[in-house]
Amino acid sequence: MGYYYYWGFLDYERALEQFSLALNSMPNDHKVWAGIGYVRRRQGRWQEALENLKQAVALDPRAALTMFNLAQTYQLMRRYAEAERTYDQALLLDPDPQSFGQKAWVYLQWQGSTERARAALEELSQRIESVEVKTIGHSWYPLVELFERKYPKALEQLSSVTSEIFDYQYYFVPKPLVYAQIYGLMGQSERELAYYDSARAVLEAELRGNMEDHRLHSSLGIAYAGLGRNDDAVREAKLAVELMHVEREAWKGLFPLEDLARVYTMVGEYDAAIDQLDYLLSIPGEISVPLLRIDPTWDPLRDHPRFQAMLAKYE
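Above: the chain sequence. Below: its structure as tokens.
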């Protein structure tokens, strides 16, 4: 029942009521403590979430999934050294591909190190052989190449990804949207526009039956911005934030805010973009100063005095 309210309705108070009832009769069950930690994390009660997950790990140090989630919580709180150590512990328990992928992401967030991220992905390829590994590894490699500004290599890696849509709880990104960004960075405007338009068509079709899906509005805002439909782009990106705000969901809500900053950057509203990024850096989350430094998405902001001051403030 706790997970029913948590996953099904984002009704965190009712979820906690159920987990508390379970805790009364199972005080030493690590799964109950972990469930409470997961809900606290979504509420943005980060320190409480961390303590709950540490308690869960203490009760069952061999629970790989709980260890993985503890590492993710450290990562979101930008406690990257602790995240790295905890992912290593999770990998000793279970060499799960997701742990390798998240560890690679830690190195990008923590140090802006594409070299260490690539090494983590190479270790994944060497240690595990499966279709799932190939899917995860290939999904990460284009991002590493993008951050290294090796755009032809990024295109090559992207073409090897079998999925036509990157579909997860936090985002819904058609592959043409990624192609469009890469071609834009390469200065190939004709191909860039063609791919943005392909992404637009996919997203508009998806939205016909899913108007409340914030992920679709976010990605459509980016596609519109790429097509020069600036007003439409900002409208869609703002709607995504309204549908899934951090006050409702402290983790999912991070993604539409970052996409809004990206749209503002694409349409030339740089101060508005910096406002969003500044807020995101002030709370636990996915972005970091090293990541902003290496991601070409933010190149138009590099010489802006407020952007430089923001990076210095959160260094």
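The mean pLDDT is 94.
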